[in-house]
C-alpha cells in the first residue's frame, strides 16, 4: 500500500484504490463522511468516467461554497409545513435537527466525494418520521436560485409496520448536492416517488440511501425530467431478512442534458429481494451538445445472502440523432444458494414494425411515434398510484415530445 502524507493508512489506501487501482468488487467500495478521504475526481475513475466534471460547478473539487439555502416544505392531507414548523400532516413528524442528531447516518455513509462534501457542508437536516398509515405526503425541495449552491440533508423514517406514500419533488434553480436517507422500520411498507423537475440551469448531484429493516418493503420510482445535469446514486442495504426493494425509473433527456443514475444494491443478508427497471428516452439537436443518459446498475449478492432474488433491467429509446445512452448492468454473486438473479440492457431506436403496424391502420406517422413513446414509458408511469401526480408527469412528457416534434 502506498502511503500518502497526512493520511491514515486506511485513507491512503482508499485514495490509491480510487485513483490508481481498480476496485475488484463492489463490496470493496470505500465510504466515508470525510470529504478529504476521497480523491478529487479527474474523470478517468470508473465511477466518474461518464460524468462531465466541468459542468459540476465545483461540487467535485471543493470550489463550490455550498453556502446557499434550499427550501424544504412538507405537505399532505393535513396541511403544509416548512422544516421549522410544528404543524405537520397527521401521522407525520417534521423536525429540523443539528449535525449532532444521532439518527443521521442510519441510512448509509457517503460513497463519493460530492456526497461527502454535502455531508460536511449541511448545517441543519430535515427529519420526517411517518407513523401508522398517514395520508400521502409531499416533500418539496426548492433550489437556492440561479448562481447559488447549497447542501441538503433529508432523512425519511418509518416506524415499525407503517404503510405510507411519499412524493419528493425537486424544483427551482441553482446547484444542489444532497444526501437523502430512507430508513424503513421492521415490517413497514413505503411507496416513494422522487421527481427531478428542475429549471434548465440546475445541477443536482444526489446520494439516496435506502436502509430496509426486517420484512420491510420499499417501492421507489424515480422520474428525471429537468435540469442541466442530474446525477443520482441510490444505494439499497438490508438490515434483516425479508426485505423487498422495487426500484423503477424513467429519464427524458433533451439536447445538452446529462441524466445519470448509478445504482448499488447490496444483498448482505438472506431471503431478500430486489427488482430494478429504468427506462430512458433521448432526443438531441444539431449544433448542441448531445443528449446523454447514463445508467449504471451494480447488484452484489454476498456470501451470507442465501435465497436472494434479484433482477435489473435498463432500456433506452433513442428518438433522434445527437443522442447517446450508456448502460452498464453489473451482477456479482458470491454464493450459489440463490433463488434467482439476472440483468439485462437494451438500447435502440423506434421499432419500424410498430410504426408500420400503426400507420397501416390509418394513424399518421407523427401520432404513431408519440404513441410508441407513451407505451415505452407506460409501464413506469402506471406504477405511480397517485392519479394527479401521474397525470402531471404524463403532461410533462407530452410537452417534451412536442418540443422534439416526435
TrEMBL record:
Region (Disordered): 1-22
Protein name per the record: Fe-S cluster assembly protein SufD
Origin species: Pseudonocardia asaccharolytica DSM 44247 = NBRC 16224
Domain SUF system FeS cluster assembly SufBD core: 151-376
TM helices/strands, residue ranges: none
Superkingdom of source: Bacteria
Any one of the GO BP annotations: iron-sulfur cluster assembly
Lineage: Bacteria, Bacillati, Actinomycetota, Actinomycetes, Pseudonocardiales
Secretion signal span: none
Pfam family membership, one: SUFBD_core
Family of this protein: Belongs to the iron-sulfur cluster assembly SufBD family.
InterPro entries (UniProt xref): Fe-S_cluster_assembly_SufBD, SUF_FeS_clus_asmbl_SufBD_core, SUF_FeS_clus_asmbl_SufBD_sf, SUF_FeS_clus_asmbl_SufD
Amino acid at each position: 500500500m502506498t502511503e500518502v502524507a497526512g493520511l491514515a493508512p486506511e485513507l491512503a489506501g482508499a485514495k490509491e484504490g480510487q485513483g490508481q487501482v481498480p476496485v475488484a468488487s463492489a463490496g470493496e467500495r470505500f465510504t466515508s463522511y470525510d470529504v478529504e478521504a476521497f480523491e478529487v475526481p479527474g474523470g478517468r475513475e470508473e465511477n466518474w468516467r461518464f460524468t462531465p466534471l466541468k459542468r459540476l460547478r465545483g461540487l467535485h473539487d471543493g470550489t463550490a461554497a455550498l453556502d446557499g439555502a434550499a427550501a424544504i416544505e412538507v405537505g399532505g392531507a393535513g396541511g403544509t409545513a416548512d422544516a421549522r414548523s410544528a404543524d405537520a400532516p397527521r401521522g407525520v413528524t417534521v423536525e429540523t435537527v443539528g449535525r449532532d442528531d444521532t439518527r443521521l447516518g442510519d441510512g448509509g455513509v457517503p460513497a463519493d466525494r460530492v456526497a461527502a462534501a454535502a455531508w460536511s457542508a449541511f448545517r441543519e437536516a430535515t427529519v420526517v418520521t411517518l407513523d401508522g398509515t398517514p395520508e400521502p405526503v409531499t416533500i418539496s425541495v426548492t433550489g437556492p436560485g440561479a448562481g447559488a449552491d447549497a447542501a441538503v440533508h433529508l432523512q425519511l423514517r418509518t416506524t415499525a409496520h407503517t404503510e405510507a406514500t411519499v412524493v419528493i419533488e425537486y424544483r427551482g434553480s441553482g446547484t444542489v448536492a444532497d444526501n437523502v436517507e430512507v430508513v424503513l422500520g421492521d415490517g413497514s411498507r413505503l411507496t416513494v416517488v422522487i421527481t427531478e423537475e428542475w429549471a434548465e440551469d440546475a445541477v443536482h448531484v444526489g446520494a439516496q440511501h435506502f436502509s430496509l429493516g426486517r420484512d420491510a418493503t420499499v417501492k421507489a420510482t424515480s422520474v428525471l425530467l429537468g435540469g442541466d445535469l442530474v446525477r443520482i446514486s441510490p444505494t439499497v442495504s438490508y438490515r434483516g431478512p425479508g426485505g423487498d426493494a422495487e426500484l423503477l425509473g424513467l429519464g427524458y433527456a433533451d439536447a445538452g442534458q446529462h441524466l445519470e443514475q448509478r445504482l448499488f444494491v447490496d444483498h448482505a443478508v438472506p431471503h431478500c429481494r430486489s427488482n430494478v427497471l429504468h427506462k430512458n428516452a433521448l432526443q438531441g439537436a444539431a449544433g448542441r451538445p448531445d443528449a446523454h443518459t447514463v445508467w449504471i446498475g451494480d447488484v452484489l449478492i454476498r456470501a451470507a445472502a442465501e435465497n436472494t432474488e434479484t433482477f435489473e433491467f435498463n432500456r433506452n429509446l433513442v428518438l433522434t440523432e445527437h443522442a447517446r445512452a450508456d448502460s452498464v448492468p453489473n451482477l456479482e454473486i458470491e454464493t450459489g444458494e440463490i433463488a434467482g438473479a439476472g440483468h439485462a440492457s437494451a438500447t435502440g431506436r423506434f421499432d419500424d414494425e410498430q410504426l408500420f403496424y400503426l400507420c397501416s391502420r390509418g394513424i399518421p406517422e407523427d401520432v404513431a411515434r408519440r404513441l410508441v413513446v407513451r407505451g415505452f414509458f407506460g409501464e413506469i408511469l402506471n406504477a405511480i398510484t397517485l392519479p394527479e401526480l401521474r397525470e402531471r408527469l404524463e403532461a410533462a412528457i407530452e410537452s417534451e415530445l412536442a418540443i422534439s416534434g416526435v
